[in-house]
Amino acid sequence: SALEERGVTVHVAAIDIGAAAAGDQLRTVLRDLPPVRGVVHAAGVEAGALLLNTTPDDLRTAMRPKVAGTQTLHELFPPEQLD
After folding, report:
1. pTM
2. Where are the domains of the chain?
Protein backbone atom coordinates (compact mmCIF):
# COMPACT_ATOMS: atom_id res chain seq x y z
CA SER A 1 0.00 0.00 0.00
CA ALA A 2 1.01 3.64 -0.23
CA LEU A 3 1.52 3.77 3.53
CA GLU A 4 3.77 0.74 3.54
CA GLU A 5 5.81 2.22 0.69
CA ARG A 6 6.52 5.13 3.05
CA GLY A 7 7.76 2.80 5.80
CA VAL A 8 4.53 2.61 7.76
CA THR A 9 3.57 -0.72 9.28
CA VAL A 10 -0.19 -1.24 9.40
CA HIS A 11 -1.85 -3.51 11.97
CA VAL A 12 -5.60 -4.11 12.09
CA ALA A 13 -7.35 -4.90 15.37
CA ALA A 14 -10.97 -5.95 14.96
CA ILE A 15 -12.42 -5.13 18.37
CA ASP A 16 -15.85 -3.95 19.48
CA ILE A 17 -14.28 -0.72 20.68
CA GLY A 18 -17.57 0.37 22.25
CA ALA A 19 -17.74 -2.67 24.54
CA ALA A 20 -16.80 -2.45 28.20
CA ALA A 21 -13.89 -4.90 27.75
CA ALA A 22 -12.48 -3.13 24.68
CA GLY A 23 -9.70 -1.38 26.58
CA ASP A 24 -8.39 -4.65 27.99
CA GLN A 25 -8.67 -6.38 24.60
CA LEU A 26 -6.76 -3.60 22.88
CA ARG A 27 -4.08 -3.55 25.61
CA THR A 28 -3.53 -7.26 24.91
CA VAL A 29 -3.07 -6.58 21.18
CA LEU A 30 -0.76 -3.62 21.86
CA ARG A 31 1.62 -5.69 24.00
CA ASP A 32 2.91 -7.43 20.88
CA LEU A 33 3.37 -4.26 18.82
CA PRO A 34 5.98 -1.52 18.67
CA PRO A 35 4.85 1.91 19.92
CA VAL A 36 1.72 3.06 18.11
CA ARG A 37 2.07 6.44 16.39
CA GLY A 38 -1.36 6.69 14.74
CA VAL A 39 -4.87 5.28 15.01
CA VAL A 40 -7.74 5.14 12.53
CA HIS A 41 -11.00 4.90 14.46
CA ALA A 42 -13.54 3.60 11.95
CA ALA A 43 -16.14 2.13 14.27
CA GLY A 44 -19.61 1.84 12.90
CA VAL A 45 -22.80 -0.15 12.84
CA GLU A 46 -24.69 -0.61 9.59
CA ALA A 47 -28.30 0.24 10.39
CA GLY A 48 -29.62 0.65 6.86
CA ALA A 49 -32.36 3.09 7.83
CA LEU A 50 -33.07 6.56 6.54
CA LEU A 51 -32.68 9.26 9.16
CA LEU A 52 -36.41 9.92 8.92
CA ASN A 53 -37.07 6.30 10.01
CA THR A 54 -34.36 6.13 12.69
CA THR A 55 -35.55 5.45 16.21
CA PRO A 56 -33.76 6.59 19.37
CA ASP A 57 -32.60 2.98 19.89
CA ASP A 58 -31.20 2.88 16.33
CA LEU A 59 -29.28 6.07 17.01
CA ARG A 60 -27.91 4.75 20.34
CA THR A 61 -26.81 1.53 18.62
CA ALA A 62 -25.07 3.44 15.83
CA MET A 63 -23.38 5.96 18.13
CA ARG A 64 -22.22 3.61 20.91
CA PRO A 65 -19.06 2.35 19.17
CA LYS A 66 -18.23 5.85 17.98
CA VAL A 67 -18.58 7.64 21.32
CA ALA A 68 -17.49 4.88 23.71
CA GLY A 69 -14.72 3.89 21.31
CA THR A 70 -13.39 7.43 21.17
CA GLN A 71 -13.29 7.54 24.97
CA THR A 72 -11.45 4.19 25.11
CA LEU A 73 -8.88 5.32 22.56
CA HIS A 74 -8.41 8.62 24.39
CA GLU A 75 -7.65 6.70 27.60
CA LEU A 76 -5.20 4.32 25.88
CA PHE A 77 -3.34 6.82 23.72
CA PRO A 78 -2.30 10.07 25.38
CA PRO A 79 -2.29 12.96 22.89
CA GLU A 80 1.51 13.28 22.92
CA GLN A 81 1.92 9.61 21.90
CA LEU A 82 0.27 9.90 18.48
CA ASP A 83 1.69 11.80 15.51
Report:
1. 0.76
2. 2-76
